[in-house]
Amino acid sequence: MNIRTTLGAALTAVLLAVAPVYAQDIEANLDPLEETLTTGPLLPEEVLRSSALTFPSILESFEREAAARSDQLSADGAFDLILEGEAYDRVTGTFSGGFAQVGARQPLAAMGAEVYGRYRLSDGRLPIYENIYNTNQAGEFKVGGLLSLLRDRRIDGRRFAVEDTRLAANQAGLNVLLVQLNVQHEALKTYWRWVAAGSEIHVYEELLEIAEARAIGLAREVRLGATPRIALTENEQNVIRRRTLLAEAQRNFALTSTSLSYYLRGSDGRMIVPTRAQLPDRETLDGLPDMQTLIAMRRSDILEARPELQNFRLAIQRAENKVELRQNDLQPQLDLKVELSRDFGGIGDGGSTFDSTDTTVGVTFTVPLQRREARGRLGRAEAELREMEFRERRVADQIEVELDNILTSLNASLRLAELASDEVEQASAMVAAERRRFQLGAGDFFLVNLREESAADAQIRAIRANLNGRLAAASYNTATMNLGELGLE
Questions:
Q1: Helix (H, G, I), strand (E, B), or coil: what is residue 460?
Q2: Is 50 exceeded by the pLDDT of residue 6?
Q3: Which H or E run contains 433?
Q4: Rounded Cα gap, residues 97 and 150, in angstroms
Q5: Which of 25, 81, 166, 259 has a Cα-to-Cα distance from 375 of 20 to 30 A?
Q6: CA–CA separation, 474 and 295 (whole Å)
Q7: CA 401 – CA 430 distance, rounded (Å)
Q8: What strands, in cross-sheet order, belong to the sheet with 140-148?
């Protein structure tokens, strides 16, 4: 067994084991989850837990998987034990005979085989053309079997359906994981945008408060004649500009809150819009991740684990099985049949010829001479297989490029976040120095405003650089299937 098959089987087993536990986890955690989402600071793990348990796309994917498992059960029914019975009796007429029989048939996977057994009992006189139904007085037991020697020996429609639905169910399980990864990725990105929008409001509020507080002092100084009125007018202009910036930040926060409610749901599926009071403190959130920790996983391991490629491998197996089925259709039909029968009891109306143990062996042979239908189906199946292989190669290359881009973006984002933090420190120091100079009469009011707004801009850039770092980390954790960081463990 190769590594791809081993990994695919392992991942499938995990998904099958997780599905019922996941359903139980939903029931056990929904009520306490809703209480957590409406009280106290909202943390990323709570958002991820909410989306994992309540988001409709994830629940839909589980239902699709359940439907695929039901198809698998239905296909297995082709090998169900079949019980058969038949009876008839003449009510009027020259002959008084009738018979009854009961039997069972069991299809087998090996060599397209089927075994069967039957008990039959006749009574009365039967016409010569129904002599085959006669038995001795205690009835007849018959056992037999059918074997396919050419067509249907290795594969047939029933065995193909069983294997195909099994692979389809495994694909549905992988699709559950893929939907979970995508949903958790979007939920996490939306959460960090919400946090960043809330942080920007705080920056602009502080900036506005400074300008409004300064307006009071300037108005007093203007009344005393210590400061020209133009300074008060300039400050009022700053107040209006800062109020505009705050209004825009508040609008952005309202939009991100609504977007986050898409992933934040109660036990009844109702969306919950988070409030500003639920924003976490900066000390509550961990810092940006370490780059070396994130890139510890090997590239080959990442590609082996990606559900898209696992899904393609299963799809290729399905296509290969279909090719094998169509090749089977080209084979001649050659079936072997073996039967053993024995009558028991006294001689019946059929005479002494029925009082024996009979063993029969027979073969049947059929073959279409042109086989155009089978050749056409085979050609289509082979073309579909080649198409699937090319698609797998394209998606694998696309994932590699995506991973390289994520790593580049992540590395740059973490570096820019560090630089932005340094810039905030420098800008804050410049503001403090300019304010001291202004208080001592050596500074300029225009420069004080300029330093304050430059410091605020530096804080906004730091917030957005931090956001970009967290978004890049979320993308990397999704690409590498870091289930713990996505709230899926």
A1: helix
A2: no
A3: helix 372-439
A4: 42
A5: 166
A6: 13
A7: 43
A8: 82-89, 98-107, 114-123, 140-148, 333-343, 357-366
From the CB of residue 138, how many other CB atoms can be counted at a distance below 10 Å? 12
- pLDDT tens per residue, range 298-337: 677 777 888 999 999 999 999 999 999 999 999 999 999 9
Residue with the two structure tokens 């590395």: 411
Kindly report the average pLDDT of the chain as a whole number.
84
58: exposed, middle or buried (Cβ count in 10 Å: 0-12, 13-18, 19+): buried
Distances (CA, A) of 236 to 44, 115, 281: 40, 96, 32
Q: What is the pLDDT of residue 269?
A: 84
Whole-angstrom Cα distance, residue 476 to residue 263? 20
Which residue, among 13, 11, 1, has the nearest Cα to 310 in the 3D structure? 11
| pLDDT 10s digits, 433-470 | 666 766 655 555 667 677 777 888 888 888 888 888 88
| Amino acid in the structure at residue 155 | I
Q: Count other Cβ atoms within 10 Å, centred on residue 87.
A: 11
CA 94 to chain centre: 71
**What letter would DSSP give residue 155?**
-
Structure tokens at 269: 């599926």
Contact 409, 396 (CB under 8 A): no
DSSP 229-294: HHHHHHHHHHHHHHHHHHHHHHHHHHHHHHHHHTT-B-TTS-B----GGGPPPTTTS--PPPHHHH
Q: Using the 8-state DSSP alphabet, how is residue 77 labeled?
A: G
Rounded distance between C-alpha atoms, residue 379 and residue 385, angstroms: 10
Q: 481: which DSSP letter? A: T
- At residue 225, the 3 state secondary structure works out as coil
What pairing do the DSSP bridges indicate for beta strands 98-107 and 333-343?
Answer: unpaired
Max CA pair span of the chain = 140
Tokens of 358: 């009979």
Sign of CA dihedral 236, 240, 241, 243: positive
Cβ(276)–Cβ(395) under 8 Å? Answer: no
State the DSSP string of 82-146: EEEEEEEE--SSS---EEEEEEEEEE-SGGG-EEEEEEEEEES---GGGGGG---TT-EEEEEEE
Q: What is the pLDDT of residues 406-435, one digit of tens each?
A: 888 888 887 887 887 787 787 777 767 666
Q: 60 — phi, psi (to 5°)?
A: -60, -40
* Tokens 């920007």, residue located: 200
CA 341 and chain centroid, separation: 55
* Dihedral over Cα of 278, 281, 282, 283: its sign: negative
Whether residue 42 contacts residue 261, with contact meaning beta carbons closer than 8 Å, is answered with no
User: What residues contact 453, with CB distance under 8 A and at least 6 apart?
Assistant: 207, 238
